[in-house]
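Input record (one chain):
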Amino acid sequence: MESLGKKALKAGTWYTICTFILKGLAFITMPIFSRIMSVDDVGIYANYVSWIGILTAITTLDLFNSVNLAHYEFGESRIYEYLSSSAVAGSVVTAVLYFIAYILRDSVMEWLEISEYMLHVMFIYFLVSPAVSLLHAKFRVAMQYKYTIITSLIPAITSVLLGLVLVLVSSDEDKLNGRVTGYYGVWIVASVGIYIYVLLRGRTVKWKYIRFALTVATPLVVHTMANTILSSSDRIMIKKLCGNTDTAYYAIAYSCAMVISILWQSVNQAWSPWCFEKMHNGEEKDIIKVAKPIILLFSGGVMLIILMAPELLYLMGGKKYVHAIYVVPPVMLGYVAQMLYTLYVNIEYFHKKQKQIMVGTLIAAAINIILNLIFIPIFGYVAAAYTTLAGYISLLLIHYLFVRKMGKHGIYNMKFNLIVLVSSIVLGISITLLYELNPVRWALAGGIILFLTCFVAKHKAEMIGALKKKDIVGLLKICKLM
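The corresponding structure, as predicted from the sequence alone:
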């Protein structure tokens, strides 16, 4: 029988590949969209995506957040009953809010700064999307990565390609609607199919499942919403305070961090279930052994991306977006803080401390909004990147204090984490001084890439052997990180 560590590494490897392909599609096509759409349309679309991210938690209640614990509470045999009940509950809440939004559509459209067509697409997407997130959560818990890949890749590839085609064939006035229709239209169709599948497998809607889902997930709705506000409100506030053009500059610069975001999302999809299982079995000591090398590898990847930020930004948007280069370093450093605070949130989540997760994220989101209101009018859109970094640092400190109060802070070494974070910030900001010294910067980046290439070549046989055995600890030992 395949061990938990081997299964987690195998799942994590495929999640990483899948997520890189999914996000890579957006990464690859972003340079095309930024060149064939006007700067204003790029800014409006960025604002639209930000609002969808924030409102998803409110309209669907993010019930998928309860699936991890439901797996232990009700068992694998009843999980589809749980999924069908939760999917219906999420859609009912969405339908009520859709009705209210339609009645008040003029005010809602004015506040969100979107058209009526975009409003309808948004809410139809909200109505059917809960089934997808619930099913994917189930697949992640069971480490059934093959099914996640199938139900993710096909609609993702189709949505990006259709969006691109519709933008290319549309007139200048309709390119924005073409992109919205292409991307969200495909996901709506795919979600309907998955919704039907979940209902047929579950064949029931029971209050006991809905009650459990609401109890676990509702506190996390505020957490998810506040977390999304922390990562997305900057674009919304830049649009309101500075306009569509600055929003587009910020959005394109922010997209440069997509590579490192993909990496952490992929790792955490396999990391979380593995950590939950270790905590469930009382094997917390194993977590710290694996955490340190992962933290170091991730932080090193952030530094490499910051070094190459000018070239990355030119690739993503072209010359007209290059002056937004100073947004990239603080955004990237924010991901280091985000990675570190997620480690502590996983502990709180496992011990059903959803309310304190919610409180921590609310505080950080409030800090971010207040700082945005103060500094964006003074320093412009670049300030939003630094306020977001401040928000993530505050999240790390808040959740560490919560976990310390629980007596579980020993699972991770906070002193080590702070040293990594502070060192990353100092080094990352210092790298910006090299943006005008291209030969020096290229030499440093080339040296890092050369070192990694030589290292992989030297240890190729051992690394392939460890991967074949699905031995995550052995792989880290080969990399001299354990």
